[in-house]
Design brief:
The protein has helices at about 35-50, 60, 85-95, 100-105, 110-115, 120-130, 135-145, 195-200, 215-220, 220-230, 305-315, 335-340, and strands at about 10, 20, 160-165, 170-175, 180-185, 205-210, 230-235, 245, 250-255, 260-265, 275-280, 285-290, 290, 295, 320-325, 330. The protein is of the alpha/beta class. The protein folds into 3 domains: about 10-75, no CATH class; about 85-145, 434 Repressor (Amino-terminal Domain) (Orthogonal Bundle), CATH 1.10.260.40; about 160-345, 4-Layer Sandwich (Metallo-beta-lactamase, Chain A), CATH 3.60.15. The strands form 4 sheets. A 6-stranded mixed beta sheet has the order 3-4-5-6-7-8, covered by helices on one side. It has a 6-stranded mixed beta sheet with strand order 9-10-11-12-15-16. The longest helix is centred in the N-terminal third of the chain and has 16 residues, at about 35-50. The protein binds fe (ii) ion.
Amino acid sequence: MTFTQPRAGVKCDGKGGTAGPPRRVLLWGNVSIAGSSSWRKRFVFRAERQAAGGGALPSQACDRGPGVFVGVDMARIPLEDNFDDVINKAQRGLRLSDGELARRAGISPAALRALKDGAFDEAAARAVAPVLRLGADQLAALGRKAWYPEAVMPPRGFALFNTPFADMTVNSYLVWDPRTRRAAAFDTGATCEPMLGAIETEKLTVRYLFLTHTHEDHVADAARLVAATGAEIYSSEREPFPGGKTFRENQTFHLDSLAIKTLLTWGHSPGQTTFLITGLAWPLAICGDSMFASSMGGGLVSYEDQYRNDVEKIFTLPRDTVIAPGHGPLTTLGQEKKHNPFFTG
Ligand SMILES: [Fe+2]
C-alpha cells in the first residue's frame, strides 16, 4: 500500500457509497486527512476494504457529496496560486499601474494584459519579475508548472484537514502530544467534520482552538468545534474573536511536551499569527495566510508589512521547519527559500 502517488480514485456518490470501479482509494483535495501513521493506515485499510466490497466509505471521507476523491494523498492539494496570481498580488502590493509595470519591464501593454490574464509567456514573465521583486526563475517554474513541494510525511501528533470553501479549499490542523493525547486545533476550515472524526478516532482531548486569523474561511465552524470539544478559542489581541480569549505577540502556550509560540505575522489581516510548534519530530509553523507554497497571502492590510514579517519571523526559522499554510500543500522553509518567487527576487 503506498500513500504518495495518486493513480486512480474512488468517487463518493454522496450517499455513503462509491461510484465507479473501486480498486484503490486515495485521499485527494477536499477531504485530505493525515494523522499518525497507525491511524492513517487504519483509515486507508478501512476505506479500501469497504470500497473493494462495494460498501460505504468512512463517513468523514464521504460526506462531501458527489465528486470527492478519498484516500491518503495530502501531497496533491493544488498550489494556492498560479503564476498570474503571484504577478497580480505583487503588482497590487507595490501599487504599480499597468502602464508603469509594462514600461519598466519593457513589454507591451497587450503582453502584460495577457500575462495577467493567465496566458503564460516565459519571456514576458521574466521581464516583469525584477520590477515586481520576484525571482524570475521561480516565477517561470511556476508558469511552466514545473514545481510542487516535495511531500512532507507527517509525524505522530499532526493532522491536516483540507475542506472546500466556495471555489477554493482551506486547511485546518490538529496537533497533539502522542502520549497524553491532549490536542490543539488550528482554524476550522469550512467544516470541522473530518477533524471531529480524527479527534474521536485518536481519542484526543482538545484544549485549544487557535485562530491564525478571523477570515470566514478559517473560522467557519468554530462554534461547532467548541461545542463538541469544549476547547477554548484564542486569537490575536489585534483580531479578537467573539467568545474567545486573546494572546499577545511572542506568547508561548504549553501542551504537555509541545510548545506553541505566537509570531505576529500580520499584513494579510491585522492580527494574523504564525504558530511555531516545537516538540514534534520537526519544527512546525502553522502560518495561516502569511505565506503559501510558492506564494504569500495578499496584503489586504499591508503588503509591505506582510512581506517584512514573513522575512523577519518565518524565513529566520530553521530550514527544516515544516510550513503548514492556510491554503495549498505543506512545504518546508528550505524548499521555499529556493522556490518561492516572492522571497527569491
Ligand atoms: Fe485570509
